[in-house]
Amino acid sequence: MEKVSLIKCDDYIQENVDNAVRQAINNLGGIEAFVKAGQVVVLKANLVMKCNVEKAATTHPSIVEAIGKMCLEAGASKVIIADSAGGPFTEGYMGGIYKACGMKEIADKNGFLLNDNFNSFEAHLPTAKVGKKFLVLDCLQQADVIINVTKLKTHSFTGITNAIKNMFGAIPGLTKVEMHGQFRTLDVFGDFLFDIQDYFKDKLVLHLTDAVIGMEGAGPSNGTPRKIGAIIAGSNCVAVDVVGAKLMNLEPLSMPNIETGINRGYLDNEANIEVLGDNINELVVKDYKTVMPNNYKPFATVVPQWLQPVVHKLTTQRPTVNRKKCKGCKKCFEHCPVQAITMTPTKKGGIGKAKFDYNKCIRCYCCQELCPFGLVKIKSGIVYKILHVGSRKKIKK
Ligand code: SF4
Ligand code: SF4
pTM above 0.70? Predict the structure, then answer.
């Protein structure tokens, strides 16, 4: 039976967060069960983009502060906050994110370090299902212990993002774009996420979720903050995600990454979890605005080429942008793994604006995730809508 700790936490007042995180970890045997004196601990936060905490796209600094302080109490020699956002993995780029997301302030206050090692390490995993060789952040490679400090959000590609998906940030900067290009469909991408989890399994000891305020709707970056009021902790990423999915009133097995995790042996089944702490039924947000995971398969390639644009449009969810509003910043263009975006002027001329080639697009939705202005929206084709009516299974009330 996998143990997952679930503790009610209504706000980000530091004292309340400190108490909730401590209780969550104590239920699992205390911080000493995970961190030993002298160890270098990396707190792998979710710092997806440069934004303030009110946007609820990134792990709240009070959660990182609470767990970081506990690591220092346990005798950690260093506590390092790290992530690789969607952009270049450089000091300049990450420095702005650390500041905007509140990480610099808590690091200065508590004696934590902000990762300043922007090297990559070539990981080899002969037993991997799909990723036998890939680059990871060198700071994670050098760490004695990794604590995955995640944010519970909807995700246009994977349905939800939490403990399983957050470790994709172990891949440095723009290499993530290549990985999306290499592992295109959700099932293969999911296997890659578990290859990453497998690679770090000896030191990735704990997953701690900020589910105080989650994100609903167009996550992981451009959705709406939504109060859930909980902290989740556990050492099994799939079990932690099952609890996260339930809080969002989702049927956990409707989330492909959870299913992949069970197939990969991370959990026998979704019922094999003992929830410690508060009653999960009292914390479920019944009207949480969830999204369907993107089960896009390029089956339209079996129809004649001239028919493909129509078939693709009708049968999939596709990214769209109002070209009049597009600011022409090129963020989406730079991060599209398959060069499906061009920057072209509108009929009236002017600066280049994003234009999508839906035949090339693999529906990874990185463009939606990374548009700093929230202008990329996901639109469902009519056939797709009909086929997916009622497919967002809810848990029984
Ligand atoms: S256009 Fe957007 S959704 Fe399509 S492949 Fe490029 S980044 Fe992914
Ligand atoms: S990221 Fe957004 S604003 Fe920038 S070019 Fe793309 S659609 Fe336009």
Answer: yes
